[in-house]
Batch of 2 targets.
Target 1
Amino acid sequence: MAIYYQEQKKIFELHTKNSTYLIGVTPEGYVGHIYYGERLWKEADNYLLRMAEIPFTPSVNKREKSSFLDSFPMEYPTGGIGDYRESCLNVRNGKGQMGSELFYLSHEIYRGKKKLEGLPASFGSEGEVETLEIVLEDQILGMRAVLSYSVFEKEDVIARSVRIVNGGQEGLRLEKVFSACLDMDNEDFEMINLCGSWARERHIQKGVVRYGKQAVSSLRGESSHQEHPFMALVTPGTDQRQGRVYAMHFVYSGNFLAQTELTQYDSVRMVMGIHGEEFSWDLAPGEAFQAPEVILTYSGEGLGKMSRSFHDFYRKHMIRSVYNHRKRPILINNWEATYFEFDNEKLLQIAREAKKCGIEMLVMDDGWFGKRNFDDNSLGDWFVNEKKIKGGLKKLVDEVNGIGLEFGIWFEPEMISPDSDLYRAHPDWAFKIEGREGTMCRNQYVLDLSRADVVDYVYEAVAKILRGANIRYVKWDMNRQLSDMGSVRMEAGRHQELFHRYVLGLYELQERLVTEFPELLLENCSGGGARFDPGMLYYSPQIWCSDDTDAVERLIIQEGTGLIYPLSTMGAHVSDCPNHIVGRVTPFETRGHVALAGSFGYELDITKISEADRGMIQGQTEMYHKYNDLVREGDYYRIASYRENHKFDAWAVASRDKREVLVTYVQVLAEPNKHSRKLHLQGFEADAMYRLEGTEQVYSGEMLMYAGFLIEPMQGDFVSRLYHFVREDA
Ligand code: GLA
C-alpha cells in the first residue's frame, strides 16, 4: 500500500519507493504539510505542524489567528483571510468579497487514478498507482476543494491536482486555482528553472532563493519559449549524483506560474498552477472546475535521479501514442531545404534521394495549401495548392509511397491569416477586442478555440486532409502567442476565462485527432519548442525541440530538455551548414551524433548537399537503427555539461539491464597541449566487465565509473565520438 491513514493522529502517509510525503490534519480541520523527502519506514508523527508552539492553533489562541494562518504549513492555502503568503485559491462570493477557508471534510483512498475531464493527465493501472482524495470544505460558501494525490510508487512520483465544486446557493468567481503547494523549511535552497527564447529554448538556470518571491511564468497563452512550467528546489552542492531535489512540473500548455517564496520565518512556499493574472472562472451552483495536474518528484540522489524519475514516469504514465515504445521512422523535412519554394517535383526529388540513404518518411512542411508562398496568407485555408502540388495531394502521397517512403504533413490549425478565405468569411473567428485592431504576429491572428463551431471547423479541415490520403505523420505547429483576448461569443465580464478555454479547445482538437487516427505519429511544435510541455506529450510522443538545429546550440537545448523529458520526445534533425540560424559550421558527423539523442531526422536539401555529407547519411541511418531502442528506452546519465565547462559535453544512455551503455562525447573547443580527458562515466554495473565496441579493450564497470575513462584528444572544434560499451556476458 502506497497510502496509509493514521486514524488517531490524523496523518496521511504517502510512500513511493524512495520518498515519503506526510499530510496532517489539526483538531480544527486545517490540512497541513508535515514532510516530504527520504522514505520513512516507521509510523510518522505530526509535531512538525508546530501546533503546540506560539502562535498556537486558532482553537487555543483565536486572537492571533492571522499569525497562525500566516505561518502554518498549508497543503492548500486560500487567500483573503490572513495567510499573506501566495495563496492557491482566491474565491469571490456573490457580493464580490474575496475570502475562503478550507477544513477537512472527508477522504477516500483507492487504487488506480481517475481521468481529469478535458485535460491531459497521467494514468496508471490499479497495480501501478494509488490515489488519495481529501475533500475540504468552506461551509460559508458551500464550496468544496478536492485535493488529489496519485502516488506512483515505482517512479517516485506524486501527481497532484485540485477540483473546486460549488455546492452552495450562489455563483462564485474563482480568481486563482493553483494545482499544488509545498510548504517546507528553507534548507538554503537553490532554484533551478529552464529559460530561454526562440531558437534557444530551455537553458538550465540556477540561482539562490532569496527572501520574497521568485517566479517563472507565462502569460503568452502557451507554455512558451521564454520560461518553462518547471521548478526544482535543491540543497547547496546538488549535482548529478548527490543532493536533495524537490521538483514540480506542470501538465498544462497555457499560462502558468511556478513560484518560490522565502518568508519571514525561513519557510519556503513553492506553488504551481494556471497563472492567476488574466484568469477567472465563474462557477455556478452545482458546477465544478478542474485544475490541471502537477507532477511532483523528490530525489535524494541529485539531479540525475530526478531526470530518470521524470523520464520513466512520462514514458510509462503520460505518453499514450502507439509510437511511445516504437522506433519512429527516420524523416526528412523540407522546411530548411526549400522553405516555401517547392512543388511536387522538388519533393519527389528529395524523396528519391532520401530513399537511397535509408530515410523512411518525407514530411511536407509549410506552404502546400491555399495560395501560400510566404508567411502572410492562407492559414485556415486547408486545401491543397494545386499550382504547387500538381495533381493533388493524394497523387503526391501515392508517388512518395511508391518510392518507398511514408508521408507526413505540416499544419498550423489554431491560426488564421487576415489574407485567407476563412478570414474573409468569418472575421469574428479570430480573437479580437471590439473596436481595436488585433495585434499581428508573423502576419497572423489566433482562432477563437473557446467556440465549439470554430473547433469543429478546424477539426474537420485537418481530418478531411488526413482521410483523403495515406498520411502517417502530422507536425502540428503554432507560430504565435495569444493577444487581444476578445470573443464575440463570450458573455460580458467573463473574458478572463478565455486563455484557459483556448487551451481546453486545443486539447479537445488533439484528443479528437488521436481518437480518429490512433496510428498517426503526431509531433507537436510551436515556432520550435514554445509548447514543449507534459500536456502536449499526452497527445504526441515527440515535440519539435527548437528551430535551432545547430549542433552546438542543441547541446544546451537538449541538456535542458533532457533534464526532465525522455530523449525520445525531443525532435532532433541533422540540418545543412552554415547553420541557418547561427551561421556555424559543424561536422556532419557531429550533427548526426547530437540528433541521435532525440527522435532523429533530417532537415536539408539532400539533392544539394555535398557528396561527402550525403555519403554519410547511410551510415547515420544505420546507426539510428542500431541504437534507437537503447536511446528511446534506456536510462539517461548526464556526464559533463558544455553549458558549465564551456569546452565539452557528454551524456550516456544505459539499457535497463545495464548490458550496454552508449556514451556520446562532443569536444566543442579544441585545447592545445592537454592529456587525454578523464571522464567519470555512469550507468554501468560496478562489478561487470564491458568491452568497448570496435576495440579489444575490456574495462570493469567500477573502473569506468569511479576511476574514469580516458577520452583521447581530438583535433578540431565541434568534433564528436560515440563509445559503445557492451557487457562481456551479453
Ligand atoms: C515553425 C516551425 C518550423 C517550420 C515553420 C514553418 O517555425 O518551428 O519548423 O515548420 O514554422 O512556417
Target 2
Amino acid sequence: MEEQVSEVSTDTVPSVALRGVTKRFGDFVAVDDLDLDIGQGEFFTLLGPSGCGKTTTLRMIAGFEEPNEGEVRIDGTDVAGLPAHRRPTNTVFQSYALFPHLSVKDNVAYGLKRKGVAKGEVDRRVQEELERVGLWGEANRRPNQLSGGQQQRVALARAVVNLPKVLLLDEPLGALDLKLRKSLQVELKRIQQEIGITFVYVTHDQEEALTMSDRIAVMNRGIVEQVAPPVEIYERPTTTFVAGFIGVSNLMPGTVRSLHGEKAEVELEAGITVEADSNGLATGERCHAVVRPEKLYVSTAGNGSAPAGNTQSVDGVVASSVYLGTATQLVVELKGDARMTVLCPNTDEAERQSLPGGGADVQLSWTPEHIHLVRESGTERATADHEAIGRARQEEASA
Ligand code: ATP
C-alpha cells in the first residue's frame, strides 16, 4: 500500500490519503483499518450514524488524535506526529468557537496576525473572506451580536483566510434550524467551488451529504461500506446498510441461484425470480434486492395497467396509505415479510383517488434497470453492541 502512494506522480497525489488507519479506545475499535483517497479540491463527505467513527477519522486528519496503526498523508506527506497547528488543515466545528471579546474582523484576522503576516495583507485577506461569506458589513460587531448562521459564516471565513490545503468540517450546520441549514448548504458548496480547496465534511444527515458532496464515504461501525458520488450511493447502494441509511430501505431478501456473466439470477422470498447485475455476489449467497420507492409502480391486482417496460413485478397487500402532500406513500407487504414503500406522485387528483387503499391486493412493478442487488452489512444487533460499547468507553474516558 505504502509503495503505491510513493509511486503515483505528483499531479495525481491525493489531497488526503488514509492507509490502513485504525484507532482504538482501550479495546474498542472506533476506526477499523481504513483506506481512503480524497482528491485535490474535492468536496468529500464522511456520512454515517452516531458513533460510526466519522469524527474520529476527521480528528486523525486534523492531528487531534493519532492513529494506533496506519498512515495519514496530506498532499503525499506522512503527517504522523505533526501537531494540529502545524498541519496544512483548518477545522470548522459545530460550536463556532469564536472569541467573544473580539470583533468579527479580529476573529478572522487572529490566525494571520499570530503568523506575523503584514498588516496590509491581513486587512486585504480579512475583507476578501468576509465579503465572500457576505459579512463585511458586520465586520465590527461582536459574535454575540450575530445570528447562529452568521457566526458559523465567520468561523468559516476565519478558517479559510489561513489558506489551508484541506478544510475539515465537523457537522458545521448541526446547530442551525432546517431552513438556515439548507441555505448554508448551498452557500458552503459555492464557497468550496470558488476557493477550490479540499473539503472533508462530517455529517449524519444523508440529505445534506447528497446535496453538497462530490463523493460520499458511508461509514458503519468503524468501516467504510461504500465510497461513491451521491447519485451512485442513492441509485446503486452496494450493501443493506447503505441502502437503508440513504433513503428508505426497500429490501427484498433472496438467494443467488445462478450467474450469467455480469448478471445474477436471484430467487426472492417474495415469490419471484429476478435478474440483475451480480455486484460481485456468488452463487448460493444470501442478498437483498432493492428498488427505490419512487421507481415502483402500483396497480390493483389483475388489472394489468403497468407501464410498458415494467417487466418485473411482485404481488403484495397494501398495509397503509398516507397522504404526504406532493405524493402518497403506500406500504405494501410481500410474501416472506418484506415491506416495500411506494411513493406515488400526486400529479393528478383522479389518479390519486383511484390508488388502492389498505387491505387491497396489488402488483408492484418496475423496469429492470431499477433493481439492484446488495450484500448483507452485518446484523443490527452487532451495530447496537458496537455503539453501546463505544458510549461506555467514552464515559470511562471522560470520568
Ligand atoms: P457522532 O456523530 O455522534 O459524533 P461519530 O461517527 O462522529 O459520531 P466518533 O465520535 O468518531 O463517532 O466516535 C466513534 C466511537 O468511538 C464512538 O462509539 C465513541 O463513543 C468512541 N469514542 C470516541 N472518542 C472516544 C474517546 N476519547 N474515548 C473513548 N471512546 C471514544
